[in-house]
From TrEMBL:
<feature type="signal peptide">
    <location>
        <begin position="1"/>
        <end position="20"/>
    </location>
</feature>
<keyword id="KW-0732">Signal</keyword>
<protein>
    <submittedName>
        <fullName>RraA family protein</fullName>
    </submittedName>
</protein>
<dbReference type="InterPro" id="IPR036704">
    <property type="entry name" value="RraA/RraA-like_sf"/>
</dbReference>
<keyword id="KW-0460">Magnesium</keyword>
<dbReference type="Pfam" id="PF03737">
    <property type="entry name" value="RraA-like"/>
</dbReference>
<feature type="binding site">
    <location>
        <position position="176"/>
    </location>
    <ligand>
        <name>Mg(2+)</name>
    </ligand>
</feature>
<dbReference type="InterPro" id="IPR005493">
    <property type="entry name" value="RraA/RraA-like"/>
</dbReference>
<keyword id="KW-0479">Metal-binding</keyword>
<feature type="binding site">
    <location>
        <begin position="153"/>
        <end position="156"/>
    </location>
    <ligand>
        <name>substrate</name>
    </ligand>
</feature>
<feature type="binding site">
    <location>
        <position position="175"/>
    </location>
    <ligand>
        <name>substrate</name>
    </ligand>
</feature>
<dbReference type="GO" id="GO:0046872">
    <property type="term" value="F:metal ion binding"/>
</dbReference>
Length: 307
């Protein structure tokens, strides 16, 4: 499956440049990359996942998100070992991808000429910022380059936050780290910092499939970034992942309380629940004032739950 995806993505990129299309993939090409998403889409073709689930995703642990995706067969969606600008803050959002490569003059000229023909202005590392919308997260693969690989400084950082109100994930580096720290609300997961400026690099595509360490990332994925690492969630799984994780959180809270009370043994809680425990759980839910989801969502979810 991964090999097919890579071949398909490579075909899109090759035909994309050969036919003098846009620097970014077209909406139809992005739809072709994300056929499992059946909901509304943004104008650029990316899945328009619901804000209410994005907001609730912040409360989901990395382990829960990772475990859910692994059970779905998606085993390459996590990357750890980051330098985080604000490690105590979580970041979620819809992914805008950018791919960078070592500079090759002929290909770089082709890309920059196309960009200018499309009306793009400024250096190519500013072009992904121009397409950002509120709630997007700018995710770039700059192949781990630190020295002379700094994609942004504080000027571009301010532009990113003004458009997205989130931050960045760079498999590479930034400069002006102190200036970036001064942007209230801005956050970043990066592989390093260096005072140098970007050299001998080129932008090769916007909203194309990219690799971020151990993870394969598509435009429109949903990102859950915390101090322990990052999980990239295919858009079609967001709602169920959030509801599943919230249910597990409730189930665990109930189990922990009943274990402290001595009402059940660990063996009873850690195995398939009896009808008596299920009934007790449902009654316990009725006493909780702050559920992570609405009661309607919970009742609908539990209809298909096998416990």
């Amino acid at each position: 499956m991964i090999r097919k995806l890579i071949c398909f993505a490579s075909f899109i990129c090759i035909t994309h440049f050969a036919s003098a299309q846009q620097v970014t993939l077209t909406p139809d090409q992005i739809k072709a990359l994300t056929p499992d998403w059946k909901g509304e889409r943004l104008a650029d073709g990316r899945p328009k996942t619901e804000d209410r689930f994005l907001n609730r995703l912040k409360n989901i642990s990395l382990e829960e998100a990772w475990g859910y995706l692994r059970n779905k067969g998606y085993q390459n969606q996590f990357e750890g070992d980051w330098m985080v600008i604000r490690p105590d803050s979580a970041m979620v959002g819809r992914v805008v991808t950018a791919q960078y490569m070592p500079l090759r003059p002929d290909l770089n000229k082709l890309i920059t000429d196309k960009g200018k023909a499309e009306g793009r202005i400024g250096a190519t590392n500013s072009w992904p910022i121009d397409v950002l919308q509120n709630g997007d997260v700018y995710v770039a693969d700059s192949y781990g380059k630190i020295v002379d690989g700094t994609l942004i400084g504080d000027n571009l950082g301010n532009a990113i936050y003004a458009k997205s109100h989130t931050g960045v994930i760079f498999y590479g580096s930034v400069r002006d780290i102190e200036g970036l720290e001064e942007i209230q609300g801005f956050n970043g997961w990066i592989k390093g910092y260096d005072p140098s400026y970007i050299q001998q690099m080129m932008l090769s595509g916007i909203n194309v499939p990219i690799r971020i360490g151990r993870a394969t990332v598509l435009p429109g994925d949903v990102v859950l970034a915390k101090k322990g690492g990052i999980v990239f969630i295919p858009a079609q799984f967001l709602e169920d992942l959030v509801l599943n994780s919230e249910f597990v959180e409730l189930r665990d809270a109930f189990g922990h309380q009943r274990l402290r009370e001595g009402k059940y043994t660990p063996g009873q809680i850690d195995t398939q629940w009896t009808d008596e425990i299920k009934k007790d759980f449902l009654q316990w839910i009725g006493t909780q004032k702050d559920l992570p989801m609405t009661r309607e969502e919970l009742d609908k979810y539990m209809k298909d739950r096998t416990w």
